[in-house]
């Protein structure tokens, strides 16, 4: 299958590109910069120049492929609302071109806000609708096209997709711990995150491309619930720093923009995903990666 991959040179996307190529698929990777284009070409992927703001380029890339894996997102936390509107417009433009084609469209989504007081399941619909909602309501937008002849699938990634070189949330927490002299957590540290290793996430994406049914949601969550105080303790132990509770009212001053995420409950089950795709995580856990020096 020839697959158009946005975010193909990113943290998750580069692993997905490797996974697809190793399994015999062709990759047409979206590249905004010369550096990204060179990295994709070195892997053996074809390069499609453009960006999330270039809607014509996105539509052309989708039209030139047998399927789409949309992983790119503007992670601009200084103007997250604008990033969501960009996402909504990009997803709609690609999907309009795929309508009635029967081709797959996989969308990278998150786990925020869809369940309260329990782990998120694949049956839980996203509460986010419309361009002005979280991530532009793109998950619900994409799944609407399952009734318009597109094999639309939402891939919900755990808040930490970890591994050696991870630039994400845990890396940010590590930097904050070094600056503050302690690995902090909010309140009693009872909030929890799901986690998945980057290579396991990439394999799940490939399996979803090949097997997932239209309208389905799949969860890239190898570990469903890791307490924030345990994450802090693991980081502190590796860095040789104490752990410390940070009062909720002081969280923003301590963690900055990370406060809204590290103090949130983002747990998930992947039981249905495992049954649907035959996906079994085999890579190191988050705590194993921390101990091995990933951060």
Comma- or semicolon-separated keywords:
Nucleoside-diphosphate-sugar epimerase; NAD(P)-dependent_oxidoreduct; 12 helices; alpha/beta; UDP-galactose 4-epimerase, domain 1; 2 domains; three-stranded mixed β-sheet; single chain; Rossmann fold; seven-stranded parallel β-sheet; aldehyde dehydrogenase (NAD+) activity; 295 residues
Which term fits the overall shape?
globular
What is the CATH C-level name of the largest domain? Alpha Beta
| pLDDT averaged over residues | 96
CATH architecture of the largest domain: 3-Layer(aba) Sandwich
User: For the record, what is the CATH homologous superfamily label of the largest domain?
Assistant: NAD(P)-binding Rossmann-like Domain
Share of helical residues: 40-55%
Q: DSSP helix count?
A: 12
Number of strands: 12
Low-confidence stretches: none
- List the helices and strands in order: EHEHEHEHEHEEHEEHEEHEHHHH
Please compute the radius of gyration using only Cα atoms. Answer: 19 Å
Largest sheet, described in full? 7 strands, parallel
Spatial separation of the terminal alpha carbons: 36 Å
**What is the CATH topology of the largest domain?**
Rossmann fold
* Count of all domains: 2
Share of β-strand residues: 15-25%
Question: Numbering strands along the chain, what is their spatial order in the largest sheet?
Answer: 3-2-1-4-5-6-10
């Amino acid at each position: 299958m020839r697959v158009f991959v946005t975010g193909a040179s990113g943290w998750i996307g580069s692993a997905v590109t490797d996974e697809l190529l190793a399994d015999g698929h062709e990759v047409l990777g979206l590249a905004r910069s010369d550096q990204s284009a060179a990295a994709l070409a070195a892997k053996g992927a074809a390069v499609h120049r453009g960006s999330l703001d270039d809607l014509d380029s996105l539509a052309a890339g989708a039209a030139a492929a047998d399927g789409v894996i949309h992983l790119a997102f503007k992670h601009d936390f200084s103007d997250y609302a604008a990033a969501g509107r960009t996402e909504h417009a990009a997803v709609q433009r690609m999907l309009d071109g795929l309508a009635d084609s029967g081709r797959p469209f996989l969308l990278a989504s998150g786990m925020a806000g869809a369940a309260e007081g329990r782990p998120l399941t694949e049956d839980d619909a996203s509460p986010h609708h419309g361009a002005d909602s979280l991530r532009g309501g793109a998950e619900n937008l994409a799944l609407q096209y399952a009734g318009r002849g597109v094999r639309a699938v939402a891939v919900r990634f755990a808040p930490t997709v970890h591994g050696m070189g991870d630039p994400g949330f845990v890396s940010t927490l590590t930097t904050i711990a070094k600056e503050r002299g302690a690995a902090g957590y909010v309140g009693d540290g009872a909030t929890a995150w799901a986690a998945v290793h980057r290579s396991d996430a990439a394999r799940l994406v490939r399996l979803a491309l090949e097997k997932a049914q239209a309208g389905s949601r799949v969860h890239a969550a190898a570990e469903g619930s890791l307490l924030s105080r345990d994450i802090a303790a693991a980081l502190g132990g590796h860095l040789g720093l104490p752990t410390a509770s940070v009062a909720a009212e002081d969280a923003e001053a301590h963690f900055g923009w990370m406060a809204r995420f590290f103090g949130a409950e983002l747990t998930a089950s992947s039981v249905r995903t495992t049954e649907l795709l035959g996906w079994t995580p085999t890579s190191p856990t988050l705590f194993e990666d921390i101990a091995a020096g990933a951060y």
